[in-house]
UniProtKB/TrEMBL annotation:
Transmembrane segments: none annotated. Residues 119-217 form the Transglycosylase SLT domain. This is Lytic transglycosylase domain-containing protein. InterPro entries: Lysozyme-like_dom_sf, Transglycosylase_SLT_dom_1. Pfam families: SLT. SUPFAM superfamilies: Lysozyme-like.
Length: 312
């Protein structure tokens, strides 16, 4: 079959174009931009690399929890922290929103922790417990601090059909502080106190006795409690050094504490919708700032009172 000049030139052009595209793909694969605390730098890649959009992050050489050192020289301790760090680094949207919410709530929680003499690292517990959301667990633990009904009543929170103070982030923080202080009196280790928040004081005490150990890091535990302190450590590390782990969050995007005014209520309110309207707001905002109100009414017994937050 004869090939005319135009067909020959067309085939030749396609060969040249294919060669250029192949060269361009290879050359663009050989370098990649990565972000560090110092800025942007180039990292060489092997030409056969599949360009997976992920990198492994360094585990910190040293870490502490509540002033207590984390023994990262122990291989399994190092690996367990590595795992939780990598997981949280790649839960991109979840971790971004967690940092945004933390800006609104952690300063308020820090003040409560300081008042009770609790180390500031415990402010990270509600981040891993609930993502700073008023969620309910499969075990019916409630709120930012995930408090069970029995535990909440023991910690002097009001829990009824109309009022559930476990949903109040700051009152729940006060209740959690009572637990943490009691646990520290028992164990004398803040790390074990944190683990007991997940497993319970009795469960951790039995594990320590049965295994004849004194350190959380030397215990063989159920998977959830075994991961628990490392999840706290990971979110602490990312929250304190976000850029190191690729989280570039504009300060203007962080959520702020909202200005509120408070009204003392000493009489029952039959209709909270009408009450909100009378206060110059609406039911949605009333519930936003008072999630502990569980019904559309509020019964106030003689001699009692409630403090309701409203937009300032």
């Amino acid at each position: 079959m004869k090939m005319n000049l135009s067909n020959f030139l067309s085939i030749g052009s396609l060969i040249i174009l294919f060669g250029y595209i192949t060269y361009n793909e290879v050359s663009t694969r050989t370098t990649e931009h990565a972000i560090s605390d110092e800025g942007v730098y180039e990292v060489p890649f092997d030409e056969s690399d599949q360009r997976l959009p992920a990198v492994s992050f360094d585990v910190p050489a040293e870490m502490t929890f509540a002033g207590e050192p984390v023994p990262l020289s122990i291989p399994d301790v190092h690996e367990r922290l590595d795992k939780e760090l990598q997981i949280n680094c790649y839960l991109h949207s979840n971790t971004i929103f967690l940092i945004k919410r933390a800006n609104r709530w952690l300063p308020q929680m820090q003040a409560i922790l300081e008042k009770h003499g609790i180390p500031q690292d415990f402010k990270y517990l509600p981040l891993i417990e609930s993502n700073l959301l008023n969620v309910v667990s499969p075990r019916d633990a409630v709120g930012y601090w995930q408090i069970l009904k029995t535990s909440g009543k023991e910690l002097n929170l009001e829990i009824t059909d109309e009022v559930d103070e476990r949903y109040d982030p700051l009152k729940a923080t006060e209740a959690a502080c009572k637990y943490l202080k009691k646990a520290y009196q028992k164990f004398g280790s803040w790390t074990i106190v944190a683990a007991s928040y997940n497993r319970g004081m009795g469960g951790i005490e039995r594990a320590l006795e049965d295994q004849q150990e004194k350190s959380y890091y030397d215990l063989y535990l159920n998977d959830e409690t075994s991961r628990y302190v490392f999840r706290i450590l990971a979110i602490k590390e990312i929250a304190e050094h976000p850029l190191r782990y690729g989280f570039k969050i504009d300060p203007a995007h962080l959520y702020q504490e909202e200005p509120l005014k408070y009204i003392e209520v000493t009489e029952s309110i039959k209709d909270l919708v009408s009450f909100a309207k009378a206060q110059g707001t609406n039911y949605k905002l009333l519930k936003r700032h008072n999630p502990w109100l569980r019904e559309d009414r509020l019964t106030v017994k003689r001699g009692e009172h409630y403090r309701i937050a409203l937009p300032a």
